[in-house]
Amino acid sequence: MLRRITALIVTLFLSASAAAQQDAAPDADELRRLLTYFLDGASRNDIAVHERFWADELVYTRSGGVRTDKAGILVDLRKGVDPWEPPTTYTAEDIRIQQYGDTAIVAFRLVAKLGGENPETLNFLNTGTFLKRNGEWRAIAWQATRIPP
Question: What pLDDT does residue 21 have?
Answer without folding.
Answer: 47
